[in-house]
Each structure stands twice: as structure tokens, then as C-alpha cells.
Amino acid sequence: MTEKTTSRAGRNLPAAIGVGGALGIMLILVLVFVPMVWFAVVSIALAIASWEVGKRLRERDFGVALIPILVGGQAMIWSTWPWGIEGAFVAFAATVLVIMVWKLFAQGLENAPEHYVRDVSLSILVLAWLPMLATFATDMVTHEDGKFRVLTMIIVVVCSDIGGYAAGVLFGKHPMAPAISPKKSWEGFAGSVLVGTVGAIACSLWLLDAQWWVGVALGPLMVIVATTGDLVESQFKRDLGIKDMGTLLPGHGGIMDRLDSLLPSAFVSWAVLTLLL
């Protein structure tokens, strides 16, 4: 007889709560006391996530340019420290050129490249999906109130997850996108919007020293992109025929399985807070 530890969301709930709580405490301590260490945290997380995605793609015979993605991704993230988003875009463009040449000669000088368009396109997708979106999170921390902006992003995403999970488990009856993620419901999405918006308003008032309506603008947008980010990764994994990108985090899967909502949220929070603050 085996002990039933999985939740209705299909996860080992005690392990997921423990790992999530430990990661949350670590991020809060870093941002409060040594905010510039956030660069190292993001760079390590993105290196692991890029490796997870590249490994999964290669298992399905997609020839992604993993080395240029790993090296170029680090260049993009660290370029935001001295040069901001402009530096990240320059590093992105340089990495795209390297990928194009890398795959051109991947089979050597005497052999024509195989699946060139497919593999170059997929490599650029991974580069834009992971490190490029992550650069908005590192750029935020360089602002005068940067640590509070990043904390706001994390808190709103966590609130969205908690609200969505609770409402989905208690009231979920109408699947949101059953062909992509059968466990997501419209009731869960409504819970995400409600709790995520409340969290965003609270962060606006008490962390960012901003007006309440900044949270009203930020919360729903972040919930939408966090939810769609999760759906995008779900479809990505469905195409590959896998449950998780990795196994590093008990109850969560891999690092990428925790970043699927945070990456698009980093861009939206950067854009909204840059515009309104």
C-alpha cells in the first residue's frame, strides 16, 4: 500500500509547499539584504532552465544550439547591470548571429546542415523565451527601488498561484483550456485575478509607495501573462510528450517548471512599473 500524497493538481503537496517556501524565503533575504546578488540568482536559475529545455528538446532529436544559448543567455543577463535593457538586446542580437553560424557548420564544413531553419528558429525561441525575458527581472533590481519592484513581481505571481489553486480546488468546474492543461479552470483563473490584484494593490501601497490604482493596473495584467505563460509551457511539454522539464525541485519538477509564470511576468511588471512609477 502506498501513501497518497498528490493533490488534485497532480503534485506532491507537502514537498511542493516545503520547496516553494524555502525558495521564497531565500529570494526575500537576497532582495532585502543583498539585492545585487539577484543577478547571480537569475543567472544560475536561467542556466539550469536553459539546460533543462535544451536537453528535453535534444531527447526528441531537435538540434538546438545549446552552447550558444547558455553562453549568450549569461551575456544577456549580466549586460543589464552596466547597460540596462539596451545591453541585453545587443547581446541577444549577437547571440542570434552566433546561433545562425553555429548551426550552419554544425555538421562540419563538408556536410550540408540538417533541419537548419527548424533548429535555428527553435534555438532563437528558447533564447527569447528564457534569458531575454529574464533580463527584465535583472534590470528592475538596478532601479533605486528595484528590490521592491522585484519583490512585487514575485508576490503577485505567488498570490496568483495561491488564489488560482484554492479557487480551482474548491470551485473548479469549467475547464479553461482542456486541450492544453485540463486542470486549469475558469473558477481558478477568477481566484487568481482576485488574489493577485489584492496582492498587487498591497505591494503598491506598502512596498512601492505608489497609488492603489497602480496595483489595479498591474495585478490583472500579471495574472493574465502568468496564466498564459503556464499554458505555453504546458503545450510545449505536451508537444514533447513529457510531464516536467526536470526533476531538480521535489513537488515542482524542474527549474523551468517554476519559471514559466515568472518569465513573462518579469516583462509585464517591468513595463507597467517603468511606465507608472
Output the keywords.
mainly alpha, single chain, two-stranded antiparallel ribbon, 9 helices, 277 residues, disordered N terminus
Task: Explain what this protein looks like in three dimensions.
The protein has a two-stranded antiparallel ribbon. It has 9 helices and 2 strands, in the order αααααββαααα. The protein starts with 12 loop residues before the first helix and ends with a helix. It is an all-alpha fold and 277 residues long. The N terminus is likely disordered. Helix content is 73%, strand content 3%. A hairpin with a 3-residue loop joins strand 1 and strand 2.
Distance between the termini: 57 Å
- pLDDT below 50 for ≥5 consecutive residues: which ranges? 1-5
Which geometry do the CA atoms define? globular
Q: Can you give the mean pLDDT?
A: 91
Q: In which range does the helix fraction lie?
A: over 70%
> How many beta-strand elements?
2
Tally of DSSP helical segments:
9
Task: List the strand order in the largest sheet.
Answer: 1-2
Radius of gyration: 19 Å
Class derived from helix and strand content: mainly alpha
Report the biggest beta sheet as strand number plus sense, adding barrel if it closes: 2 strands, antiparallel
Order of helices and strands: HHHHHEEHHHH
Relative strand content: under 5%
